[in-house]
Amino acid sequence: MKHLPRRHAFRGILHCALTLGGAAAAALPAAALAQAAATLDVPAGPLDAALNRYAAQTGLVLVYDPALMRGLRSPGLHGSYPPDAALAALLRDTGLMARRGDAGRYAIVREPAGAAQLEAVTVDGYSLGESSEALGGYAIPASATATKLDLSLRETPQTVSVMTRQRIEDQNLNSVSDVLQQAPGISVQNMGSERFNVYSRGYAIDQYQLDGVPTVVEVGTQDVAPSLADTVVYDRVEVLRGAAGLMSGVGEPAGTLNFVRKRPTTQFQGHVSAGAGSWDRFRLEADVAGPLNPSGSVRGRAIAAQQRGGSFIDYYREKKDVLYGVIEADLTATTQLTAGIDYQRKQPTGTLGGLGTPLFYSTGEQADLRRSRSVAARNNFFDVEAVTVFGSLRQELGGGWTGKLSFNRLESQRDFQTAMASLTAGFANPVTGAGVPLWIQGGNSRQVQTGLDLHLEGPYTLFGREHQLVAGVSFTESDTKSDVMRDVSGAAAANPFNLYGWRNQSVHPDLVKNYDNDTYTRESGAYLATRLRPTDRLSLIAGARVSNYKWHYQQLFAAPASRPFDQDMLAEENGRVTPYAGVLYDLDDSSTIYASYASIYKPQYYRDRNGRMLDPRQGENIELGWKGEFANGRLEASAAVYEIRQDNLAIADDGQIVPGTDNVAAYRAVPGARTRGLDLELTGELSPGWQVSASYAYNRSEDADGKRIKTVMPEHLVKVWTTYRLPGDWNRTVVGAGVNWQSRIHYSATPWQLGRTVTASQPAYAVVNLMASHEFSPSLTATLNLNNVFDKKYLDSLDTTFNTGYYGAPRNAMLNLKYRF
In what order do the strands lie in the sheet with 159-163? Predict the structure, then answer.
């Protein structure tokens, strides 16, 4: 404890986490493991994946030739079995057997005696580089999201959480928003039906990665194809909390999200599934993977998904289609080529655009409406079609060194029409519902993104010890061109909006061009990081990134009378250096303490009450923590305290608008802003068949005078989810339960439309979710998810820009049938 800051608010919680982690570290010696029965949860599937899962759950060491596994499947195993019986069941009808060796090791060999064996591979629990799909469970051993170095989570001196494939399927998390709402330390705040912001440690995450390649997220322009993606194509989502300046030199201190795609498998496998749920929701999936030639040197995977249905929001309906294909080819023994395509189309109707429900009445009191009430026309639409082509070339260079070139190319098209209450122009009378005009617009946009990353990684020797080095360059470019249309038919005047009596009537406008809305972003950079090992217990990580950045935004009106409202904003920076440093010390074989430092640099696009752009935000992120890895890597625990210091932090300048605009809110820069927080997390397998993910996040942002700012984000956030496979005769059934709790959020503002100060608030609330799954056979499984069990009514977001909020979904259910083959 003497290595951590002496803050009384944190010390007791950290002590509890360390005590629990130490208790979880207890393990049986190898000799006992070789004889003891273990309660197992090994699903049917490829044989090598089943053996890997078995080794992870028991701690036993298995030795086998990977060529023996090719094309073989295991029926799986559930229940309590000693090693000999368990391995015999897992290997049934494969022509293989398990032979016990010294120290509890088992060799997997052919049944006929005297068969030749090739070079063996050792499986000792989890291994680096595995997909979460193959490993199962909630824990995964490695992540390169923070430093590009292939390190275990325990060896990474920052807070990293992973939402694995098993977790995604257990909770039926089919959208990016669904996944992030369950991710530790993350606050998702919806902005209407098609947009949302992701917050971590008090700031918005504006940096995404696809297989480690940076991509741009344009929340402000609604061209957010990565955010709208269906999760059926992802193996896992890695969440880095804290500054990520080494991988993206320009960005928020919130962190980054890395979406890791599914890859082909060495054995044939697949599934089909069908689901039905509340609000007439239906979903179909098909996923097939395996070798494409007899040797297995070429492998492929194809995925298709379709979703249809309604929502708790009146007249909102969703239509979503996904197609995904990827091929992996071993060009030589040391060269691997991957190429794929991802097609996603979303066609919702009755959409709310970027707004939610009004927070205030014209009297200034906070509105309390039905969760289902929509302020949008039922024939609104928001069609997004996105095609991503991606690939990589990986080359082993000898001596443990590898080089990898990766790319993503995204093209998306958006078409929309919006007729809804103009919530920025007025507030409704609480009695009559009148007072808000109808606002109509439409348009289309096209976004093209290119992302590239080239890096080399490998070991080197210095002063008689081995160390690691990664060096690379990356490039990201995004060009979004939008045509925004206005209505000249008079439909708004002919269909006056009324909060209570409008009935979401269909509006058929006559649209003409209003303005161009174009955004261009480009960032290029070079990075270098090394992990030094002065001793067996001490590690030092140091690195830096040099970045060039450009952001250009234009809003150009078509009508001469409107051209005084044109906007042309430019932010550019060249040669910006963002350093990174970390130090880790292993207290013992299972726990590590660490400290890390990262710098912050973020150009700002906000303007003040005089029309000037704010200066770039600059600062630093400091984190101290402890990490533990127990039960042979199946259980991970962490505790971290952090402080973020920044100058020029933009906050809303209450009641002020930018000159020359009709309603664009003005901002002011806050010097000496400081954010302090705590992250606690426990993830993995507490015992065979019992998975858990539990986290607590504390975060408080203050200005230089100690006044709390950013109050629309919760100060306290708790997320707990667990599943348990029942014992004995019930071992085909898994039950799950979880709760998400957050503290009060609120804000006060003086809208120019009201001319007085009003306050919106959402008290602390908890949402409880349940799950039950039953295996009718090794191939057929049914899963029922019940969300918001107690039907809690709450606002999951408060939008200070438009004075709107967004209700969380009421009680809902989804039943899914899945057939594996």
Answer: 159-163, 234-241, 255-261, 207-210, 213-216
Listed in sequence order, the DSSP H helices in 201-349 are: 225-228
* Domain positions in the chain: 225-230+241-820
Residue 652, pLDDT > 80, answer: no
Which tokens hold the place of 40? 């197992």
Give the integer Cα–Cα distance in Å for 777 and 797: 43
The H or E element that residue 55 is part of is: helix 47-58
Q: Count CB-CB contacts under 10 A for residue 370.
A: 11
What is the full DSSP assignment across 373-402?
A: ---B-TT-EEEEEEEEEEEEEEEEEETTEE
Q: Match 């890096």 to its residue by tokens.
A: 455
**Predicted TM-score (pTM) of this structure:** 0.85
Token pair, residue 299, equals 């492998």
How do the residues of the chain divide into helix, strand and coil, expressed in percent and rounded to 5? 10, 55, 35
**Residue 625: half-sphere exposure toward Cβ, Cα within 13 Å:** 29
Q: Which two tokens stand for residue 319?
A: 């239509």
Tokens 């443990």 label which residue?
400
Q: Which residues contact 270 (CB under 8 A, 6 or more apart)?
A: 286, 287, 288, 289, 290, 820, 821
Q: Confirm if 643 and 664 have CB atoms less than 8 A apart.
A: no
Q: Is 117 exposed, middle or buried (0-12, 13-18, 19+ CB in 10 A)?
A: middle
Q: Could you give phi then psi for residue 729, rounded to 5 degrees?
A: -65, -15
Q: Could you give the 3-state DSSP secondary structure of residue 784?
A: strand
| Element of type H or E holding 501 | none
Strands 61-64 and 106-110: parallel
| pLDDT tens string 681-719 | 999 999 888 999 999 999 999 988 889 988 999 999 999
DSSP state of 154: G
Q: How far apart are CA 521 and CA 49, in angstroms?
A: 42
Query: Residues 6 or more apart from 633 whose CB is under 8 A from it?
Result: 56, 125, 126, 139, 141, 152
Bigger pLDDT: 129 or 366? 366
Pick the closest to residue 52 from 628, 634, 629, 589 (CA basis): 634
Query: Which CATH superfamily includes the segment(s) 225-230+241-820?
Result: TonB-dependent receptor, beta-barrel domain (2.40.170.20)
* Backbone dihedral region for residue 500 (phi beyond 0: left; psi -120 to 50: alpha; all else: beta): alpha
User: What are the angstrom distances between the C-alpha of 757 and each of 539, 665, 749?
Assistant: 53, 15, 5
CA distances from 743 to 1, 696, 713 (A): 28, 12, 9
| 227-231, 309-313, 335-339, 388-392: segment of lowest average pLDDT | 227-231
Encoding tokens for residue 187?
């606050």
Q: Supply angle C-alpha 671, 674, 677, rounded to 5.
A: 165
In this structure, what is the dihedral angle of CA atoms 354, 358, 362, 364, given to the nearest 10 degrees?
A: -110
The whole-angstrom separation of Cα 369 and Cα 43 is 46
Phi, psi of 790 (to 5 degrees): -95, 15
